[in-house]
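User: Predict the complex.
Assistant: Input components as received:
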Amino acid sequence: MADLFSVLSTSATALNAQQSVTSVISNNLANVDTPGYSRQTANLQSSSLDMLGGVVLGGGVTVSNVTQTRDRFVEAQLPSSQGAAAFSQAQSNSLTAVDALNASNSSGISSALAAFWTSMQSLSQDAGNASLRTGAVTATQALASSFNSTSSSLDAARSGLDTQIIGSLTQVNTLSQQIATLNTQIRGASAGAQPPNDLLDARQNAQDALVALTGAQVVRDAQGDVSLSLGTGLALVSGESAAKLSTSPDVSNGNHVAVFATLADGTGPVSVSNAAIGGQIGGWLSARDGALKTAATAIDQLAYDVARAVNTATTSSFALNGSAGQALFTIGSSAAGAAGSISVNNAIVNDESLLPTKGTSTAGAGDATGLANLINVQSQAMSGGQTAATTLATLTSQFGSETQQATANAAADQASLTHLTTLRASASGVSTNEELVNMQRAQSAYQAMSRVITTTQAMLTALMAIAP
Amino acid sequence: MRITDSMLYTNANSSIGAARTAVSTATEQTSSGMRVVQPGDDPAATASILTDTAAGKYADAIVKSTTAAQSELAIADGALGTVTSSLATASQLAVQFANDSNNATDRANAAPNVQALIQQIIAALNTKSGDRYLFGGSQDQSSPFDAAGNYAGDSQVRTIEVAPGVQQAASVRADVGIKGVGGGVDVIATLNALQTALANNDTTTIQNSIDALKAATNQVSLLRTQAGANENALAAAESVAQATSNSETKQVSNLQDADIVATATKLQMAQTALQAAISASTQSFKFTLLNPNG
């Protein structure tokens, strides 16, 4: 039969256990707003049994371990959702930030092109008029300038994404190395009885961040290590080692950066295709080399086509002084970079009488038959089979469609991520109310055990009093 | 479902954030009056806005050039009216002094009148619109007729585009209508002949000039008819272009501009939704054991 001292001993285990429970609750409440924190539970277990005189007596209670509450099913779905949401959000943000192609842009190509044709139309009505010629040359300069600024704006958007990509890769390398190190630490700590909860939280946080940046796929092995790999299977983190990503200017892509990887075993660097990278960086790459590049290339082609067609008209016409017509635009030999480099022939800028308007060298100043050929360019099909205005409308609409699609994807992906994040928060998050109830329960148990100790002490005192 | 604190705050952030975005969008549309700002707002409408705007501006350019051309043709018609009037006066003089009741002195005294008419006609034919001459063809920077009535212009008829690839004449040929190129009558030479005949008391030539002046008058009238026809054609083109411009402007407005009533309603709804989201979130924060009395 148990003696009174064993009762005190049992009570002591309960007080300790309830203190531990309160400590865990305290830790949970302290981390109620900590990102990635998973609530912990102190698991109580009754102590070994005492057999005294054929009677089984409890030995008190101990905290067997402190575990995290996680929903592995939800967590397995989260990485792809995080990657997709980050990808579409980055793509959407990158595209909606570009306003160079806005229909309402009064200094855009569309307005400048219309003003160019209008100025030529006005000039055709009075081809010898000096002020109208000045107006026509000014409108031509405005058109060239509009192509320049639109090209520059699109290129600046692409270069801005380069800067973001370069900055993020540093973060990717830090996180990859962090996860590899945590794999090592978690493996070592897991050898003990207590799960390394804080290390697991830290790795989950790093994993979430890395997945959001790269869209990497997560694989958990039997040892408890977490490995992450890019779309082509290239391992970012493999157990205890990590690859390192870097960038290098790509000459074939206007010197915009391409991504390379030095593998975990030190080999490389090897080229990493855009398609292999998801997440935020993938979204930036997609916007940079997708819609933005397509629009920039189409603007280049439009500038080249318009300049060539106009130059064909002006070089078959004659200036006011009867000299052979010069090319109105200065343009390169190919469409590549045409919008950025297009300019107006300096000779014509300096002397607008050289703007070719006459059909013959001997015609008078009022002859605008040469100019009529130039005006006809607005009805001519460009290389894509459409007029300049329609070509511009089509490319703008295509850019708008891709922006709209990216925005819609971002909303849908974000909704999906929010749903999964909510489910994870439901399973692993801390509820203040729940913790307060648990704390109340622990406190009640603690008070009950205190009462047991008080009563036992009274019994002992009474016992001592009857002793001789 | 187990509700945690982070869920409460995340949901509050998410719902209030979405409501705020809706309010911001509705406010932007209401204040700017525009439904489509970026291509992504409505890609199909953006394409139409660009092509319709371009078509509208092209139509505006046609309206502008046809209006100017009509104005010039009206000035040219007025000048030709002066020529016709002068020719009528010359014809009267020819009829009057072909009559035997006048003697040589009378005819010699009438000769300066014809000379004055010639100068009047030359002055009319050297009419300018702005800084250019209307009867010189493409040679519009200097007087097409000198004091002696010699023509320095050319045979070109100026044209302007009134529709894609469609040119409309915007001037008349003085070389044909005044100088008689192509088998017609040289109006000024005819008047010179009359003046010389009056000075020399050459009644035969005076008599002959009556028919010549009649032919000259018909010729100038034909020129005026051509000017009028061109003016009418340009007026018709202007009318079509103006209608096109109006139509394109309306179409762009339909596509680009926000429906103020609709956006104002949407703004009100968005504001109400935001208020509701804030209120609901605030309520949800109250239910905690930390504050058992609510």
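Chain A has a mean pLDDT of 91.
Let me know if you want any component modeled separately.
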